[in-house]
Predict the structure.
Amino acid sequence: MPRERHEPIRLTKIYTRGGDAGETSLGDGSRVSKRDPRIAAYGTVDELNSAIGLALTGGCSASVSDVLHRVQNELFDLGADLSVPIEQADRLRITQEQVDTLERDCDTFNADLPELRSFVLPGGSETSARLHVARTICRRAERDALVASEGVGVSPLALVYLNRLSDLLFILARAANALEGHEEPLWKPGASR
C-alpha cells in the first residue's frame, strides 16, 4: 500500500541480506556498489546525525535543542535527497527554504556572541565540544557530497545545506559556551614554543 508523502516510513525487517555482496539500493531502487560516492555522502550525513544526537544528550539549552532536533529531521531529508539519482524528478530534496532557515538560525545565535579575535579551539563545555565534533563531521559530509556531485551528480542545494549547517554548528558551539558560562578557548599562535 503506498504511503502519503509525510507519513513515516514503515520498517518491518531490519536485515535483508541484500547488501551481503557489497551492493546496496539507492532511494529509487537501483543497485550500486557500497563504494558509490552517494553511499559515502549519505553515510557521513548519518554519522553527523548521530553526533548531533550525542550533543543533544549533554543538556543543550531549549533554544539550541529545538534547532538541533529540527536539523536531525532535515538530515534524514538530506540523506533521502542524496540517495536518489539527481535525474529522478518529484523526489524529496533539500529546499532553499531549509537553507534560509539555517541562515536565520546563524544570525539569531551569532547576534549576542562576542566578536571573534582568534580561531576558536574546540572545547569549553562538553556540549560545545560535542557540537565541534558534529561540525567537523559536517565538513567531511560536505566533502563527500562534493565528490558525489563531481562523480554522479547531486542536488546543488544539498551542498549548500551542508556548508551552511557547518557554519551553524560552529556558532552553536560558541553559543553553548556562552550559555553555560564557559570561557571560549582561543588559538594562541606559537604559544607552545
